[in-house]
Design a protein that fits this description.
With 611 residues, this protein is α/β, with parallel strands linked by helices. The strands form 5 sheets. It has a 9-stranded mixed β-sheet with strand order 4-1-5-6-13-12-11-8-9, with helices on both faces. Strands 14, 15, 16, 17, 18 and 19 form a 6-stranded parallel β-sheet that branches. It starts with 5 loop residues before the first helix and ends with a helix.
């Protein structure tokens, strides 16, 4: 019997501490009808039964409200409802188009795109699957029946005859099924065929599901961000999932009405939302540092660092979306070939490599000055932690290619005073310091001048970076340097045998001297054939950990220098790296080390020895 004494209920809440167990917050897009935002009980009840906390998202087209909503949820459920206005995909409405819901369209399309950018797990149901593909580059069939009739009319005559022959041989084969049932909403009325390599198959362990059906629209084209994972017997797309290893799934049927069978999809969403919540909180506690990006290579295009600029992979918006704290931006200096001048290799009017590096650092400082509330130049580990405490992003300076020194040892001190934290001794070609992994053995390793450079870098507190160096240069530098050395963006030769990668012997020697090697996201260093993905990056990391130990690894993306793979395509996706680390059973202490802790240990050692 229900007690109507409020204190009795409060006493139950306060009888223990904490007052309740936290459950992932699932935002559910509300329907809009007759001037009211509404929510069918089945949606929020299934979320609650799956272990989530359902909250209603009204269709409000206000960017501040949308952004604030996204900051408070761990997962997004796009609910069913009326048709989407086809004008959003550049199509005119057909006569068969049903009622559209203009009040919902723009807010839901915006929240879907922004949730996608923030890596928030998403489940789309009926209209929700159509919202997913519309927001993210796909298209919707306005009316299934019309589309099938048009497709049949366009078929060549001989193909129609072939179909009739097949039909005569297999009279039970359906040509078209009813997708808008008249029965109870929890009643399955047709089957769908499920792809084995899909989240849906892993959830249901079956290649055939029986579903309810209340739609006359469907996904026509998934776009590049999705792949089809289920179809009805007449070929209508019934489910899609992310093709980028993200927790995004859409189904055409209504699992909220299918009780325990439908509950599995809601349990999947809540589980993914819980993982995302854990990753977010982890990023709140640890410092996340990417040790190599080449975004300054795009400065000649007048990039907008305070906008979500599609020309670059690292900007303030993307760093915020991916919950990235800091990045080391490299002044990349191309290596001139015999007979070439340096000035002919770069976009800006400079005479020497040193002038070019200084020019790049001036540009970065100008970006920081115009966004000083949100970003800062950091020179030490202490600077990084102070920026994080104050809610700012950090940029550190690096140099990629020691030709920036202009063959003048005094310039090591100059760049130390500018705040440069590492110098990559060479790039893709031998220089006056050492030989490159893609060089011609000009110096037979580190040159006499190179020895002086390394020792001066030790004195001035600049880290010695041996990414791009030849194997002989690597071992020479390891012996010369009085401080641990780093490889800011390199992968494992045992998994991908290319000159730029590090052998197991190099990895062991590096670890023995206290150094670190940071896995990079250039596809050609992760695998020799096929498209590289986040899974390859994790495989290289795991291998490096097995060879070196957890204290000597990290991540240097090489974003904007051809780095970026499926699942880790830009800074907005870097929280996916954390999710993958959690999935691979790395604990918080391990993840803190990988995300920059190991690098900062070496940086502190190097900077502590300055004269």
């Amino acid at each position: 019997m229900t007690s109507f004494n409020l204190n009795t209920h409060l006493d139950e809440i306060y009888a223990s501490f904490p007052e309740g167990k936290r459950k992932p917050i699932i935002g559910i897009t509300a329907n809009f009808w007759n001037g009211e935002a509404t929510m069918a009980k089945a949606y929020y009840q299934q979320v609650a039964d799956a272990g989530g906390t359902p909250v209603l998202i009204p269709p409000v087209n206000d960017k501040d409200i949308i952004v604030s909503t996204l900051s408070g949820i761990d997962g997004l459920l796009l609910s069913g409802g009326a048709d989407i206005n086809p004008l959003w995909t550049g199509e005119e409405p057909l006569p068969q188009l049903h009622h559209i819901n203009a009040q919902r369209d723009l807010p839901e399309l915006l929240i879907t795109q922004l949730a996608y950018n923030r890596q928030i797990p998403i489940l789309g149901i009926c209209r929700g699957i159509q919202t997913l593909v519309t927001a993210l580059g796909g298209k919707v069939t306005q009316d299934i029946e019309t589309a099938m009739q048009e497709a049949a009319a366009e078929e060549p005559t001989d193909k129609k005859k072939s179909k009739r022959s097949a039909s005569e041989a297999e009279p039970s084969r359906p040509i078209h099924i009813k997708h808008s049932q008249d029965g109870d909403r929890n009643l399955p009325t047709h089957s769908v065929n499920v792809e084995k390599d899909s989240m849906l198959y892993r959830l249901y362990k079956s290649e055939k599901l029986y579903v309810n059906s209340f739609h006359h629209q469907a996904v026509a084209e998934t776009g590049k961000r999705f792949k089809v994972t289920a179809k009805s017997p007449d070929g209508v797309i019934e489910a899609v999932e992310s093709s980028e290893f993200k927790p995004i799934l859409g189904v055409q049927w209504h699992p909220e009405c299918m009780e325990t069978e439908g509950l599995r999809l809601f349990e999947w969403l809540v589980a993914q939302a819980n993982n995302f919540h854990l990753a977010k909180r982890l990023h709140d506690r640890i410092l996340t540092l990417d040790t190599h990006c080449d975004t300054p290579m795009f400065f000649h295009q007048d990039i907008k660092f305070d906008q979500r600029d599609p020309r670059i992979l690292v900007d303030l918006h993307k760093m915020t979306d991916g919950r990235q704290d800091a990045v080391i931006m490299a002044a990349y200096l191309p290596q001139p070939k015999m007979g070439e001048s340096f000035s002919s290799k770069v976009h800006f009017d400079v005479n020497t490599p040193m002038e070019y590096a200084d020019f790049i650092f001036d540009k970065i400082e100008a970006i920081v000055r115009s966004n000083r509330k949100y970003i800062s130049i950091a020179r030490t580990p202490a600077d990084l932690f102070e920026d994080k405490r104050k809610g700012r992003k950090s940029i550190m300076f690096g140099i990629e290619n020691g030709i920036a020194l202009n063959h003048d040892i005094a310039n090591v001190k100059h760049f130390a005073q500018r705040g440069v934290v590492y110098i990559t001794l060479c790039h893709n070609g031998d220089n006056d310091i050492c030989d490159s992994a893609k060089g011609c053995d000009t110096n037979h390793g580190v040159s006499k001048f190179g020895e002086k450079v390394i020792r001066e870098m030790n004195r001035e507190g600049i880290m010695v970076d041996l990414s791009h160096a030849s194997e002989q240069s690597f071992f020479d530098a390891l012996e010369i340097s009085k401080t641990p050395i780093v490889c800011s963006h390199s992968c494992c030769k045992a998994l991908c045998d290319v000159p730029r990668n590090l052998s197991d012997d190099q990895l062991r020697a590096l670890a023995k001297k206290g150094g670190v090697a940071h896995i990079t996201l250039y596809g050609g260093f992760l695998r020799k054939e096929g498209e590289a993905t986040i899974r390859d990056a994790i495989e290289h990391l795991n291998h490096a950990v097995r060879i070196m130990g957890i204290d000597h690894v990290g991540l240097g993306t090489d974003f904007d220098g051809d780095g970026g793979v499926t699942g880790l395509a830009d800074s907005s996706e870097l929280i996916n790296f954390t999710l993958a680390l959690l999935k691979n059973k790395y604990n918080e202490r391990d993840i803190q080390k990988i995300w920059g802790g190991n690098w900062l240990r070496v940086m502190a050692q190097v900077q502590a020895l300055t004269k």
